[in-house]
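Entry type: protein chain
Record version: 2
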Amino acid sequence: MQENAIQDIVIVGGGTAGWMTAAALAELLPRGLRIRLVESDQIGTIGVGEATIPHIRTFNHALGIDEDEFLRATQGTFKLGIEFANWKQVGESYIHGFGKIGHDQALAKFYQYWLRMYLAGKAPDLRHFSINTMAPHANKFMRGAADMPNSPLGDIAYAFHFDAGMYARYLRGYSEKRGVTRTEGKIKRVAVRDADGFVDFLELENGERIRGDLYIDCSGMAALLIGRALRTPFEDWGHWLPCDTALAVPCASTKPLLPYTRSSAHGAGWQWRIPLQHRIGNGHVFSSGFMSVDEASAILLQNLDGEALGEPRAISFRPGKRARGWNRNVVAVGLSGGFLEPLESTSIHLIQSAITRLIHFFPTRAFDQADIDAYNAQTDYEYERIRDFIILHYKQTERTDTPFWNYCRNMEVPETLRRKMDLFRTHGRLFREGEELFTEVSWLQVMHGQGLRPHGYHPVVDQRSEEEIGSLLSNVANVIRKCVEVMPTHEEFIAAHCAAPAP
């Protein structure tokens, strides 16, 4: 071990962020590190029903977590994508599905061939060419079949819905088995060294002082270390993302058990629907500048599929991020580092990516600035590209029915997003830049679903005749349809593999 190696890690805050961090560091860092997590049962967490993206499977796999066991422990279900209702216009919907669309060809992406025919009025909508957009409407689900490598059934991308509080408890047990120490208590004071501005120690209300080499701030929006103690500036993105309040409430389950998240746009925001095995998680994200809490609450309760299991709980937030996610000897993970509304289910992914990035740049007690700068640059890039993707949903709308949607449709957007939209408008061109999270297929589905139409298609597509392209599209759509027909329902698959014990 290096002479100045990190020996003591202190995680401030539990919840999903804290226990994901504890579990990953305990499992993936060298043995001998002392990891201590400080949390208080008196301080609640944001945790509601959570939706994820497929990257969570990589995280769980790295920790050696059995998928069926995890789903039983968290009342989890499967997710093939997100349905967006009323975003382009009231009464219209589309699905942003995970995974592939069609089969890319040697000279161009599959969607370019589809685009030529679609612009000519000779192709059905995009959803017909992906198993992840066709299976959800039939309420079908299965894991990819390894023995069918050349079939859409052999490669099905999926994520999960689960109870975030249950996931945190599951990871707490996992972490404590691997030596993580949990300390119950409220933090009274965070002492900062005068000499270098580093966090020196935490003082609890009972007088105990806790020292570490590296501190990880998982204290949520309170941002006790990164914000209050180190006064790291916060970049507010509210002018691009005007929603600033969420109301959350669970409701009773209804049939069928849908294998996708639903996002339904309302007059000044949108409502989420996350189906779990034992209930449905619901919430209304809205802009308090365009709608009152009482009105938002009434809309939420009127649009539940089952009986409400409580009163709506209000959560206020500021969209944006810290100017530096890593400042001195403090790394922010989760909401302490930034907040992007959960429209594309990126909240847990941002926790996961921060943990992964910290492991990649894991420091010594020298805390080399080059490492910190590289970490922060990558964090900034990730947040900004996800921000742009979320803004796209608001900007690219045809709704004119409320002041909120008029504001969103007419607002200026970041230059990075404007360039992407302009490029797509010409010949449907999409390029994934660097290590940004969302692929060309994701951008395509949202741009098309929201009504952004290219003027043309890639000229290389004209190498093939209309008849050849029509045959290609017809074959892909037929294969997808037949695959969906043989899949079990979502409910049948869960019953056979990962049903949670009856309460």
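Comment: The first strand starts at residue 8 and ends at 12.
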